[in-house]
Amino acid sequence: MGMPSGMELIIIALVVLLLFGGKKIPELAKGLGEGIKNFKKSVNDDDKEVAEATKDKIEETKESATKATKVEDTKKV
To answer: Domain containing 39: what range?
Structure first.
């Protein structure tokens, strides 16, 4: 069960044309394109949020480590 051949693609295109009509197909394609665009935007936004959260966590860890080192140094004195 591989990719459809040229003749099968033509039959599929004709069935879609019969089901939706010539006027609806551009509207469906536009809606599909906008959906894909919104999905990609959401994925990129999520990636940015994760990167920012990771950066914040790293900074907090560095600050905690610095404070712990200072506390240990004051105990030695």
So the answer is: 22-77
Q: Count how many domains the chain has.
A: 1
Q: What percentage of residues in the chain have a pLDDT greater than 70?
A: 87
Q: What are phi and psi of 24, to 5 degrees?
A: -80, -25
Query: 18-40: b or e for each residue (b if 16 or more CB lie within 10 Å)?
Result: eeeeeeeeeeeeeeeeeeeeeee
Confirm whether pTM is higher than 0.70: no
Q: Which of 34, 33, 37 is nearest to 45 (CA)?
A: 37
Q: Which of 20-29, 31-40, 51-60: highest mean pLDDT?
A: 31-40
